[in-house]
Amino acid sequence: MDRITQAAREKLERESALVTFPDGTMSHSAGNGELWTKLPQMTLDRKRVAQRRIVTIDRTDKATFTFDILRTKILKIMRQNNWTSIAITSPTQGCGKTLVSINLAFSFANLKDCRTVLVDLDLRRPQVGNVLGAEKIYSMERFLKGEAAIEESLLRCGENIAVGTNSHPVSYAAELLQGPNTAPILTNLKEKLKPDILLFDLPPMLANDDVIAFLPNVDCVILVVAAETSTLGEVDVCERSLAQETNVLGVVLNKCEHGPEKYGY
Ligand SMILES: Nc1ncnc2c1ncn2[C@@H]1O[C@H](COP(=O)(O)OP(=O)(O)OP(=O)(O)O)[C@@H](O)[C@H]1O
Ligand SMILES: [Mg+2]
Fold first, then answer.
1. How confident is the model at residue 257 (pLDDT cuts 50, 70, 90)?
2. What is the CATH number of domain 27-256?
């Protein structure tokens, strides 16, 4: 590598714009490009997604900085541990899992060399396709059962982000999530697309056993809690229960009135 390229690379790394893994390789390893380019493209209606509080696509709303800070913190831990997959859950319904999942996914994808995959595995109330306004919404049930291929299940939004959407609620979601095909199907997804970050939007965890059933498939989990709604008791129970199953990356306090404006910028 010549000196200018080396200097540029070091600058990008300092600014977290380039993902370099501990073995020294950068993301987008060879061999995965072909399938990635076969994924059908999703066209995003920027106005529509902004109305649904997705701020990291347009990046004009100052809330985007909050997600970028979260992204950088997460990326640092993921890189230190060589982790790639993150589950996102909450104690109860409506805490903002889908909003955090989508905003985080696009925040990661704003790092041009961070290939990001977001999969809607809230099989009871799937909303990712709806929030993004996807023209075509697939079935994660068919995907997890091995009835639909990756290119029939995920849509690409631009160069380095793909989204697995789900058209309808699934009966017996927990059984499907721990079904015999699910783990090998997800391993195959990781091998074929080689995402640097793989995010799963999951259901709330106090309502059913979907989350606990699914956790063996991920490296870590984020708990999204809603200010003024989630109780300390709920957060405590969820954290303990998650910690028994996987690595708890942290708790995101959503719907909080107090932002970081006081720090200027
Ligand atoms: N930080 C926020 N500020 C304002 N509104 C928010 C915020 N986070 C989420 N919302 C709104 O709250 C509602 C619920 O959010 P979202 O669908 O992301 O929650 P969820 O946890 O995925 O819900 P469910 O349990 O139904 O899947 C949505 O209308 C969303 O736009
Ligand atoms: Mg949701």
1. confident
2. 3.40.50.300
